[in-house]
Specification:
The protein is α+β, with helices and mostly antiparallel strands. It has a domain of about 100 residues: Alpha-Beta Plaits (2-Layer Sandwich). Helices cover about 20% and strands about 15% of the residues. The termini are far apart. The protein binds iron/sulfur cluster (2 copies). Its EC number is 7.1.1.-.
């Protein structure tokens, strides 16, 4: 059976009318900012104070876009102990022109020095400007949202559970032998046959 003349036009107009009466979902960015999910991956922030220059993030990055330079510093001996050396961070940079926002560096960092920030407005005309040095990465820390609360009834993190257990443990008087499994306090007396 042939189609009625003008049916295609009527169908098209019906679609137009239906769309015209629906509420628009277009955001007038940049006048209206988007509502981003709390864990949006916008830019990577560096908490420089936590970084021990272990290089794990740079080694794990699949794009090789994390650049780290450091030097060793010797700290003078205190109280008759040995002099200690520590790593000092000279350069920490991420090239966001190469980064693929996989988040592996953040997962790999054992010292909580890297975080996701939802900020995404850092487009540049010059590609070289997309390499953010440590001062700029540190500034992004101010835009990192606080961690989300745990689900009700979720297990507490093991660090919190260990601290609470230690706080409720009865205090030992000096000279009293340790109970089995109790950790030795630094400088505390050794028990006969104890391993420490
Ligand atoms: S998010 Fe992925 S690609 Fe980007 S710096 Fe981290 S590890 Fe590298
Ligand atoms: S993994 Fe963390 S602590 Fe190690 S170099 Fe990277 S940011 Fe610093």
């Amino acid at each position: 059976m042939g189609r009625l003349p003008g049916s295609g036009l009527a169908k098209g107009l019906a679609v137009t009318l239906r769309t015209m009466t629906r509420r628009s979902i277009t955001r007038q960015y940049p006048e209206v900012q988007p509502d981003l999910a709390p864990r949006s991956r916008g830019v990577i922030a560096l908490l420089e104070e936590n970084c021990t220059v272990c290089m794990l993030c740079a080694r794990e990055c699949p794009d090789w876009c994390i650049y780290i330079d450091s030097h060793k510093e010797t700290l003078p001996a205190e109280g008759g102990g040995r002099a200690r050396t520590r790593n000092v961070l000279d350069r920490f940079a991420i090239d966001f022109a190469l980064c693929m926002y996989c988040g592996i560096c953040i997962e790999a960092c054992p010292f909580d020095a890297l975080f996701w920030s939802p900020e995404f407005e850092y487009a540049e005309y010059d590609i070289n400007e997309l390499t953010h040095e440590k001062d700029r990465l540190r500034e992004w820390m101010w835009t990192v949202p606080p961690p989300q609360a745990h689900d009700p009834g979720a297990e507490p993190p093991k660090e919190v559970a260990a601290a609470e257990k230690a706080a409720t443990r009865p205090k030992r008087t000096p000279g009293e032998p340790r109970t089995p499994g109790e950790p030795r306090t630094p400088g505390g007396p050794r028990t006969p046959g104890g391993s420490t």
